[in-house]
Structure formats: C-alpha cells, structure tokens
Amino acid sequence: MRIPPIKSIIAFESVGRTGSITRAADELGISPSAISHQITNLETLIGRPLFTREGRGLVLTPAGQQYFGEISQLLVQLGRATDHASGARAPEVIRIHSSPSFGLLWLLPRIRALQAEQQGFKIRLSCSYEPVSFSGGAYDVDIRHGHGIWPGVDVRTIGGETLTPMASREFIAAHGLRQPSDLLRVPLIFSESPLVQWPQWFSNVGVSQRDLGYELFFDRSYMALEAAQQGLGVCLESTLLAASYLADGRLQPVFDASHAVPVSAHHVVFPAAGAERVVPVVNWILDATRTPSQSV
Q1: What is the pLDDT of residues 13-70, one digit of tens each?
Q2: Can you give the pTM of this predicted structure?
Q3: Who wins on pLDDT, 84 or 97?
Q4: Domain ranges across the chain
Q5: Confidence band (pLDDT; 50, 70, 90) for 296?
Q6: Which of the listed residues 48, 172, 205, 214 has the most CB atoms within 10 Å of its CB?
Q7: What is the DSSP string of 126-195?
C-alpha cells in the first residue's frame, strides 16, 4: 500500500481548491517552492500528472479531479477521527459560509427561522469571497456563487433564480419605462456579480445596443440593489437576492416575468463525508428559496 506524506496531500488539496501555488503557499504558511516540491513528489509517487497549467493558474487533470474528490473526503474523516480519539465532543454548531451578498440579503433575515427549525444546533455564519475548504473542519456548508462545478463535494443548486432589471417605483414612473429599448436612455447600474450582464440581457430581449453608458459600477450585488433602491438607476440583479426589496416594494421589476433570464447562480455545497449531519440544514435552505413567504 502506497501512502503519500500528509504534507503532500495537504499541499495538493490546497492547490486543487485555489488553483494557485502562490495562494496555497499563503494559506499554508510555507514557500511556493515548498508547495511545488510536495506536488512533484506526489505526482512522482502516483506516476501521473495531477495538474496542467492554464493561463496563470493550475487546473486539475482528470486523474487529479478524481484524486481530489477522494482526498477531500478522507481529510474530513481524518479530522473527525482525531476529534473522536482525543475525546473531543462533536460541536453543536453548523458553520455556514457564503458570499457577502447572499449572506446579507437572503440568509441573515432568515437566520432566526433557521435556528427555530433546526433546534439543537447553533448557526455560525461567515461571509467572504475567498474559496473555502472543508478539509480543515472550519465550515460545514458553503453557499457559493458560480457555475456549480467543484470537484470533491456535494453540490445542490438553488432553483428558481432569475435575473431581471429592477428599479424603484418612482424611477420607473418618472422615466416612463414600458419596453426594453427604453432602458437605453436611462442610467444603468453595472454589477460585476451576475452571471448574465447587461449586453447579454439586451440581446436576449432582442434589443441592439452599442456602447452602454453605465452610471455606476459595483462589485457587490447588495450595493447595486441599494443604489437602485435610492433611485440612482436600473440594476440587473437576482430576484433571489432582491427578495426582501421586492416584497416590501423598495424595488420592483421594470418588466414582466417574460423579460427575466433564468440562471443557476447559487449553490449549496458540502462534503459528502458526514453529510447526514448537515442535510437537514441544506434541505431547509433549498426549501426556503422555493417558498417566498418563509422570510423575514
């Protein structure tokens, strides 16, 4: 039986998750050359390349993807086995990580309802745009924004999410917005977050456009929604994230549902190992996203 050094496994997991030797080195507190050395040793032991270089980053090969999925689960099991051997009590905390926009706009208003439903657990919420690992035991559930392709974890996609232009009721009335082409003459708010951007939305509704003059640029959905709520323009954002704005009338869709674009942008992610512990929380989140009334 060939068992690689644990240092090589940890380095491999970090590079596989971050796609970068430099970021893995920063995360583990060692030099990039040490990370490269560990990866080389592991590839030599296995006899196959685990990464290929793509641009400035590293991408897992098919063999690397399979190995990453199995190793990630084993690291979680190793951490739990160590806790059991040391007599440590299993924590009664579900540690959820999410992007700041989802955490602030959707999850935080529902934390009380989630805690009431999941009695016996405390909910700990952390928000950032940094990739997180389950191998260290710091998180149990991660709500990610993207295309839903992450090896080595269980991914449950949140359904029913759409992107649509939104603005305040007063802004829509003041500018007489009745059809998509009307948006070409009003301030548009640009947000980096959505998977579908303004040019794609205009193409989808059959409106040709050249140079779109954006009034404001943001890198966070919650900032774009807040700017639109203050009457600064029209934003193109997720109905999932904007649920509370839409429910209380601070924002409203500029057009009917036929002008909304379906997306699969948010995903509930968790390790397959020990999934039975977090599945009730995962199912609650998925059910709540399908039930608008289960909110604030």
Answers
A1: 888 888 889 888 888 889 999 999 999 999 999 999 999 988 778 889 999 888 888 8
A2: 0.68
A3: 97
A4: 6-86, 93-157+266-289, 162-262
A5: very low
A6: 172
A7: EE-SS---STTSS-SEEEEESS---TTSEEEEPPS-EEEEEE-HHHHHHHT--SGGGGGGS-EEEES--S
Looking at the domain 93-157+266-289, which fold is it? Answer: D-Maltodextrin-Binding Protein; domain 2 (3.40.190)
Non-local CB neighbours of 116 within 8 Å, separated by 6+ positions: none
Its CATH class, for the domain covering 162-262, is alpha beta
CATH number of 6-86: 1.10.10.10
Q: Do domains 93-157+266-289 and 162-262 have the same CATH topology?
A: yes
Helix (H, G, I), strand (E, B) or coil at 110: helix
Report residue 163 as tokens. Answer: 């992107």
Compute the distance between CA of residue 63 and CA of residue 51 in angstroms, rounded to an integer: 9
Q: Which of 6-10, 87-91, 146-150 has the lowest mean pLDDT?
A: 87-91
Structure confidence at residue 87 (pLDDT): 62
- How far apart are the C-alpha atoms of 259 and 235, rounded to whole Å? 14
- Distance set, CA 261 to CA 58, 89, 258 (Å): 32, 47, 8
At 249, the amino acid letter reads: G
pLDDT band for position 293 (50/70/90)? very low
Which ranges in the chain belong to alpha helices (H)? 6-18, 21-28, 32-46, 62-86, 100-102, 111-117, 169-175, 198-204, 221-229, 243-247, 275-289
